[in-house]
């Protein structure tokens, strides 16, 4: 018999449920018992090594990753990095998951980790579990899962870095919105054509503006009075002009600058397909709207 003692009855119950799910494929090799409080007992009836490797260890590895991992991540966020606000904790947890699930690139890691998180947990259980053992699960986490906990902390650190960057980004976007709200529109309409990595400016008559003309639009006071850097090729002239309407033609709506423009200009900006931009013929080209 293997006895596992938990600090929380809810976790004991979750492990008991997972073991019973495994038992469907392994009966009568083992069975699990739950005392209704904090202890789960596993009785092995088949060959010990086989039952542990094929059934008990996979179930306990799944238990750690599916039922316990979020609690461990939150403890690192709170107790190691001192984020105590619940909303902040949840945002950092969500970002940590995006790294854990491979949605975001781990920019600190040059090469892939030699072992997955699951492999770290499996290895810890494989070197520890045996019939006749009685142990505290929390002690097991503390003393046997150090490499796994270090891996979780690595991803929490990445998530916190990302969280701080996103906070700075939101502050930056709000600053530009405030600047925009305080300015009277100088143009009623402006056209932008996304030709990666450039954004080409066109006036209300769809005449392309030169780089020098775009730079002349920038309100230097706006740029120098702000505490954060404003991109001088796109955002600075746009906020300086504060157009009432912007039509942006792009085939890359997920581009970072495109999304920033959407966040700043909101309902003033409309996205179009790049192919929909039609330049006027030279004969019909009108005079650029005066600022």
H/E element string? Answer: EHEEHHHEHHEEHHHEHE
Largest sheet, in brief, is: 4 strands, mixed
Number of folding domains?
2
Please count the beta strands (DSSP E, at least 2 residues each): 8
The proportion of strand residues reads 5-15%
DSSP helix count? 10
What value does the average pLDDT take? 90
Helix content: 40-55%
The best one-word shape is elongated
Uncertain stretches of 5 or more adjacent residues: 283-291
Strands of the widest sheet, in order across it, are: 2-3-1-4
The assigned structural class equals alpha/beta
Alpha-carbon distance between the two ends: 84 Å
What Rg is obtained from the alpha carbons, in whole angstroms?
A: 29 Å
Write a structural description.
This is Sporulation protein. InterPro entries: Spore_YtxC. This protein has ten helices and eight strands. It folds into two domains: 2-177, no CATH class; 184-273, no CATH class. The relative contact order is 0.09. The termini are far apart. β5 and β6 form a beta hairpin. The protein has helices at residues 9-26, 48-80, 86-100, 117-126, 137-144, 146-181, 211-216, 220-225, 235-241, 256-265; strands at 2-5, 30-34, 39-44, 134-136, 189-195, 198-202, 245-249, 269-272. The strands form two sheets. Strands 2-3-1-4 form a four-stranded mixed β-sheet. The protein has a four-stranded mixed β-sheet with strand order 6-5-7-8, covered by helices on one side. Residues 283-291 have low confidence and may be disordered. By secondary structure, the protein is an alpha/beta fold.
